[in-house]
Amino acid sequence: MIGPAHLPHGTNLVGLPTGLIASVGFNDAPAPLHIAGVREMNDPLFEMLAVAENLADASEAFLKYMVAVFGLELDQRSADADDGFRRPFRASFLRLLIGWGYDSSSPEAAVLKGWVESRFGLLPGFHKQPIIDVGAAAFLDYIQERMASSFHTNSIFAQLDLLYEYSQWVLSTLIYPEESHVRLYRGVDGFREHHIVSRFDRHHFILRLNSLSSFTTDRWVADCFGHTILTVDVPITKILFANTLLTCFPLRSEREFWVIGGDYRVSVARD
pTM of the prediction? Predict the structure, then answer.
């Protein structure tokens, strides 16, 4: 039996070795990451973003593009129709993000972790329970949820590719144009979802984050989720999305960031 620290890396679509992307060295000194072909195949979106004067303009351009390309109905976010027909938003990036917001081990979260696995080569170390081996029941349960047919319609991974590239453009152009990292916080009770690689002292670790994790820019929000507060300087290139980047996003008060995993230097404070 192998432990979560030794889960294998897969192939990726970002042009650098997965082991490098996952390393503490990369997270200390990141390089730009782009999913192969996404920007080249979606020139109209980035032409619209190039003339956006602010975040509201950029958000509107992105949402209009997603509606046009994928036929999304972004104003319908909850119940199915009376006839049981599953509306397009059920197979949309927005539905996955909302599902994650309620439960980061939900079926929607499994699809998001599957996208990270496919595009960045990082397998999850936790989904409902620790995943210690690719042959373990926990990993097989994750695979079953990751592959659920109800979510894999309407080119869902292609939608997430565009979400990542949109987020990268907004963060590096409008929000943090002079920065390589953003300081984020996460409240936890224990380390079941992450793996301690090494400890420098009681307050400074190298922590292997799960393949996808939630953080916030607000230290006080993190306090609501656990008595132990993790502080991490996250490379902008390792951020899938932040819920303040879309004006339509319904769960914005927590200022949540979706962070792609790997080994990070982490400061730990206990309340």
Answer: 0.91
